[in-house]
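Aim 2, interim progress: modelling of the adenine-bound target.
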Amino acid sequence: MKIRVITIFPEFFAAGLGEGLLGKAADKGLVQVETDDLRAYAGDRHHTVDDQPYGGGPGMVMKVDVWDAALTTAREALPGCRVVLLSPQGQTLTDGGARRLANEENLVLCCGRYEGVDERVAEHLVDEQLSIGDYVLTGGEAAALVVIDAVARKLPGVVGRSESVERDTFTAGLKFPQYTRPPSYREWAVPEVLMSGDHGAIESWRLAEAERRTRERRPELVVATLPGRLRLVAVEPSAATLAALPELQRAYGLAIVAAAIADPEARAAAEKAYPAVKFHGQLANAGRRWSEDEWIHLADAPGPGQLSFAQARHRAIEQAAGVTVSFGGPAPRGAAAAAPALVEAPKGLPALVAWLDRLVGR
Ligand code: ADE
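Predicted structure of the complex, ligand included:
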């Protein structure tokens, strides 16, 4: 993978990239990072990259024409590259986001400075903006280093055993606790089970510990492991939605995809065409069956008695097992009676895909 970093502080990166696993990854040619000095693209003899903000206010703003020249060169040098602007205004980087970027062949990271970057850069010249957290750094350089580190360790061969990347914190919530010798230090003992040699018991203990600490410390992360427990039920789906269900199941790792189709002929035809999809007929029956589950409202602007997205997330976290998401139509009557928080679903596949993306933190 090639990563080009555009910055006014190219020297910032030398030490950070030369050490440890990142240094080794570079030596092995698994990741090649190059810096490009933004000032080289300034047209004047002072190499000016910033100017005063229109409308007044403190600080300087980085110029769109300079960034345009730098990015034109970058896109020529790295065809098909994904261009990312580091900015506190961006989506927050997640472990899933790092994995996604690791699939790119060429990445360009743009480091902003000062009070900001002309909005036209974000709007027209880059593919996305990324933040590394809800705090403001003096510039994007430290953030770019974080992105490079997080992305590089997802590349095959960078971390010794790929199993350890799969077991990372955040792949499935927080990581279980680790210990090494001595078995007892002061009055602090290593949990017995880890020294029992019983691999099954050790695995169960680790899973339980990881889950417990995730719920206690970072309950919002539980949703990231939710897709495997989600049942997605399309109510009277369109042909396009029906056709998309198997792919949605695969792409998000959903436990079950189902469709409720009242008309027996249409249901029989769909059953033949989509063997991986579970079908329900009578909505009343389906309602009884689903009434044990929590339903999630997918809309952002809830009506009376409905859940907002944030509330739905919260509920999903609290009841992580067996959550049913309905979309494409109103919830069946039986289910509505059994679960008062229940609701109508969003219209349209794009809304559903966007919702699932948010759920899994893509
Ligand atoms: N630049 C300044 N603050 C930042 C942040 N939190 N993430 C990414 N880039 C930044």
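DSSP finds 14 helices and 15 strands in the chain. The first helix runs from residue 12 to 18.
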